[in-house]
């Protein structure tokens, strides 16, 4: 069975372009894999930022955590368990102010845990979430995908690679403000061309 983790991060919810393109990508995957299990994590309401209490919680052995630490770690552990269980990650990446939405950044921050998603070796960092595929839906009003002002797509690719996820494909509906209809059609064609 194929396990798909869908990450919605647009504050516009179902009205967003990234949501619509994620719907299309999900439909393609589930048509090819009718037994696929899809778990959706909606980040639109926000994700708690990591802080000193978070560090204290996640780096304290589970059996030694106090009640407050256990609550903090439980949320982060749940996010991590979803990613570990997934074969395919569908990630919505709406670009806000040239970068990654704060809630998506916080999601990655919760996942970036030494010994869980990466480790340091003599040869450098090694990702521990190998063998997964990620499809990232990049949407923007004015930022061109891959341009010098796109500080989002490269960062997401770097973070996924840092975790060991190197099979990463981007679908992009960029610069929507100039020709939304043509851009959306081109992005839908990109989704349709993805291998299921």
TrEMBL record:
Transmembrane segments: none annotated. FMN binds at residues 10, 16-18. It catalyses: 2 a quinone + NADH + H(+) = 2 a 1,4-benzosemiquinone + NAD(+); N,N-dimethyl-1,4-phenylenediamine + anthranilate + 2 NAD(+) = 2-(4-dimethylaminophenyl)diazenylbenzoate + 2 NADH + 2 H(+). Homodimer. It comes from the Bacteria. Residues 3-193 form the Flavodoxin-like fold domain. Its cofactor is FMN. GO terms for molecular function: electron transfer activity; FMN binding; oxidoreductase activity, acting on NAD(P)H as acceptor; oxidoreductase activity, acting on NAD(P)H, quinone or similar compound as acceptor. It comes from Antarcticimicrobium sediminis. This is FMN dependent NADH:quinone oxidoreductase. Signal peptide: none annotated. Belongs to the azoreductase type 1 family. PANTHER family: FMN-DEPENDENT NADH-AZOREDUCTASE 1, FMN-DEPENDENT NADH:QUINONE OXIDOREDUCTASE. Keywords: Flavoprotein, FMN, NAD, Oxidoreductase. Also exhibits azoreductase activity. Catalyzes the reductive cleavage of the azo bond in aromatic azo compounds to the corresponding amines. Quinone reductase that provides resistance to thiol-specific stress caused by electrophilic quinones. It holds the Pfam family Flavodoxin_2. Binds 1 FMN per subunit. Its EC number is 1.6.5.-, 1.7.1.17.
């Amino acid at each position: 069975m194929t396990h798909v983790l869908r990450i919605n991060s647009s504050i516009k919810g179902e009205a967003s372009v990234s949501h619509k393109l994620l719907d299309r990508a999900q439909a393609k995957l589930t048509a090819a894999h009718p037994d696929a299990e899809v778990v959706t994590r909606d980040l639109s309401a926000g994700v708690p930022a990591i802080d000193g209490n978070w560090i204290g919680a996640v780096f304290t052995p589970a059996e030694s955590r106090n009640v407050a630490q256990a609550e903090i770690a439980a949320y982060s552990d749940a996010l991590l368990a979803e990613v570990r269980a997934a074969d395919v990650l569908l990630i919505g990446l709406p670009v806000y102010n040239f970068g990654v939405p704060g809630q998506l950044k916080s999601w990655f921050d919760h996942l970036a845990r030494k010994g869980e998603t990466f480790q340091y070796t003599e040869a450098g960092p090694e990702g521990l979430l190998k063998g997964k595929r990620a499809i990232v839906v990049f949407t923007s009003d004015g930022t061109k995908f891959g341009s010098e002002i796109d500080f989002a797509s490269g960062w997401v690719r770097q973070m996924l690679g840092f975790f060991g996820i190197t099979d990463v494909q981007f679908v992009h509906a960029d610069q929507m403000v100039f020709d939304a209809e043509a851009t959306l059609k081109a992005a839908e064609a990109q989704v349709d061309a993805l291998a299921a």
